[in-house]
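Bumping with the actual sequence this time:
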Amino acid sequence: MIKSTNYSLTNPNLKHRDSVFSLLFSDPDVLRELYSAIEGIILPPDIPVSINTLSDVLYRKQINDISFTIDNRLVVLIEHQSSINENMPLRLLEYIGRIYEKITYRQKVYKTKLVKIPKPEFIVLYNGVEPYPDYKEMRLSEAFKDASDLKTTDINSQSLELVVQVYNINSGHNPELLKRSETLGNYSSFISKIREYKESGSSLDEAMKTAIEYCIEHGILKLFLEEHSSEVINMLYSEYNRDDDIAANREEAYEEGIEKTARNALAEGYQVEEISKITGLDAEKIKLLSQEALQ
């Protein structure tokens, strides 16, 4: 277990992080602990861990959450998600291509001799509020369009596959994993405390500050929060605002879909009462949509 870690922002690995998760885990020792906990192994402290997280040089912005190599033999991509994105396998495919480009830079990949590369591994750590199982796998092949009528070979064979391991790290899920990684367990407890205070009626600002005070007092991410409380609050504001925007967009899209269904039903001659049962819209709203269609 990691008892103390220097999280000073003078460390170049900690610059320009745009999430609390990325800041917290952008340290080789913490990553060694996290990976050991996920795999149920113990990585010796002398095994080198090198961070190679992608960033946009022009905008000085981090692109993916965390990627690192272990002993130059394994490259691990870890993404933190507060909402499940079914496109993560495709996104991680894009990331791994760029990371391999970084790793093999200046190597003669166009020569005939085989260039050895670290084996990839893809992990998503989920801590959103929507229900989700403790563990699930997402596969790139699930996104492939059906081309079975264009092939004569075995349609079950895949020329390309990418498997993402998704772990639910909310409190009450994967307790053994959270126990094996003290840092991950503390992070889960910290986020849980913020939600607890928000649900009890506190504003986001009050919830974050009270959660930080509670966690420092109870030894949860104590050193990290003492050194970076202001950065943590700023990052959390951005994260919560981004989540709110995503939720608002989803709700808007859902409402547009319901109204489109109602309009189609009106066009097909359904009665207001029938449409109301199908869509859940009240009669006045359906009549308004009907009037708009006539204009």
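The tokens above came from a reply further down the thread. DSSP finds nine helices and eight strands in the chain.
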